[in-house]
Write a structure and sequence with these properties.
With about 180 residues, the chain is an alpha/beta fold. Helix content is about 35%, strand content about 10%. A three-stranded parallel beta sheet has the order 3-4-5, with helices on one face.
């Protein structure tokens, strides 16, 4: 995932293309327009000292010139409220709440919405339920499945949980010591 995201270059002259776009030499921040990413840790991928609406405003403008002012329109806030309502976590009533005060599950669900709100070509899930309790992990996985299915989004999910891999994946690749086995 780090190679796809541009954190590390591919070895031995390899290249990375996303739907025909060669992104190999593109900087990490420019490459971000092609994918959304949810990290293992609910604290990564969201800005704790910004509100829910500010986080969503940054996410919706991924890959574009952006500023926080886009969050101030009532239309934009209504749009965010409607998206958050589908999560059934009460976040639609907490648009002006600092993200750092949310629970881990709420924060991970918000990170998932942020990663998918601009409808990227690819969604990268890096063990995105690993640090959640089993009940919350189940909720986040169900939300993930709903969002991915609704938009028909190509997704790469890393998990060490074989049950999750079999239930949610439609193509499985097993790796051992950095090699496909």
């Amino acid at each position: 995932l780090n190679m796809i995201a541009g954190v590390y270059p591919p070895d031995k002259g390899g290249k990375i293309t996303i739907r025909g776009n060669n992104v190999t030499n593109m900087s990490e921040h420019k490459r971000a327009q092609f994918f959304g990413r949810v990290y293992q840790d609910p604290q990564i991928g969201t800005a704790a000292k910004m509100t829910v609406v500010e986080n969503l405003s940054l996410a919706i403008a991924r890959g574009q010139k952006r500023g926080i002012n886009i969050a101030t329109t009532k239309k934009r806030q209504d749009y965010f409220r409607n998206i958050l309502k589908t999560l059934h976590l009460g976040l639609e009533d907490r648009l002006n709440t600092l993200v750092g005060t949310l629970s881990g599950g709420q924060r991970q669900a918000l990170a998932l919405v942020m990663a998918t709100i601009s409808k990227p070509l690819l969604l990268l899930l890096d063990e995105h339920t690993a640090k959640l309790d089993p009940n919350t992990a189940g909720i986040v996985l169900e939300l993930t499945e709903n969002i991915v299915t609704k938009v028909n989004m190509t997704t790469i999910m890393i998990t060490h949980n074989m049950e999750h891999a079999l239930r949610y994946g439609n193509r499985l690749i097993m790796m051992h010591k950095g090699r496909i086995v």
